[in-house]
Structure formats: C-alpha cells, structure tokens
Amino acid sequence: MSDLIEGIEQLREKYNKLSDELYIKQQELEKKRKEEIIKVSKNILSIVDQLDVINRYATEVKDKNLKNILEITYKQVSSQLNSIGIEEIQCKGQLLNPYLHKCVQVIESFGRQKEEIVEVIQKGYLLNGEVLRYASVIIAK
C-alpha cells in the first residue's frame, strides 16, 4: 500500500512540474506573439503615415479627386485597423494627456485653453487599449 501512495506522490510531482513548465512556455509564446503583433502593427502604421503625407499634398494642391480616393482608402484602412484592435488616439481640441500624447512644441494660440492640442504632427494609436505609438502634438500656451 505504501508503494502505491509513493507512486501516486511521484506522479503528482511530475504532473506539477510539467504543469509549471507548460505555463512558462505559454507565457513565453504569448510574449513573443505580442511582440510580433506590435512589430507588424508599427509597420502598418508607417504605411498609414505615408497616406497622411499624400493627404497633406492633396490638400495643398487642392486635388479633389485624390482627396476622394484617399477618403475611401482611409475608411478601408481604419476599418481593418479597428478589426485588429488598433485605433487612432483622439487629439484635436483635447487637452494634453501625457499618457497618450507627446508634446513637441508649445505655441501662442488665442482662444484656446492652456495645453489644448492645436495641431497633430504625427498621429498616435492604441492597440487593444494600450499605447502603440504616442501622438506627437503642438499645444497652446
């Protein structure tokens, strides 16, 4: 009988050890998966940044056709980004939030609250509610 109890104890120890090893491996895989998602997401954002540059150009040259094409493209890209948990950080008219925004310049702006965001230099994004990239902004004095 004591041999049986001893055998059960050894099996329990092996089970606990394997369970602990499995948990550690799951945590490592989850960390690697998250790192890869962040890497891919940042690459996608560089493409979105290029769309922003084209949009600014279209605005400067007043190209309505290009603006219309960009609007359609933005809607599609935004929809796809939202489907994978990426959303743009709201900025214009908001007050500076150091958890979401990075102030790159302070300017005089009459009729604005102190630390109100006046302009967005680079859009910021959240990935599943966590900051993927801070928004670079200009705020009022």
UniProtKB/TrEMBL annotation:
Residue stretches in coiled coil: 1-35
SUPFAM superfamilies given in the database record: Coiled-coil domain of nucleotide exchange factor GrpE, Head domain of nucleotide exchange factor GrpE
UniProt entry keywords in alphabetical sequence: Chaperone, Coiled coil, Cytoplasm, Stress response
Role noted for this protein: Participates actively in the response to hyperosmotic and heat shock by preventing the aggregation of stress-denatured proteins, in association with DnaK and GrpE. It is the nucleotide exchange factor for DnaK and may function as a thermosensor. Unfolded proteins bind initially to DnaJ; upon interaction with the DnaJ-bound protein, DnaK hydrolyzes its bound ATP, resulting in the formation of a stable complex. GrpE releases ADP from DnaK; ATP binding to DnaK triggers the release of the substrate protein, thus completing the reaction cycle.
GO terms, biological process: protein folding
Pfam families listed in its UniProt record: GrpE (PF01025)
Organism the protein comes from: Asaccharospora irregularis DSM 2635
Stored PANTHER family: GRPE PROTEIN, GRPE PROTEIN HOMOLOG, MITOCHONDRIAL
Example of a GO MF term: protein-folding chaperone binding
Listed name of the protein: Protein GrpE
Location(s), subcellular: Cytoplasm
Subunit-structure text: Homodimer.
Main localization, broad class: cytoplasm
GO cellular component: cytoplasm
Protein encoded by which gene: grpE
Membership in a protein family: Belongs to the GrpE family.
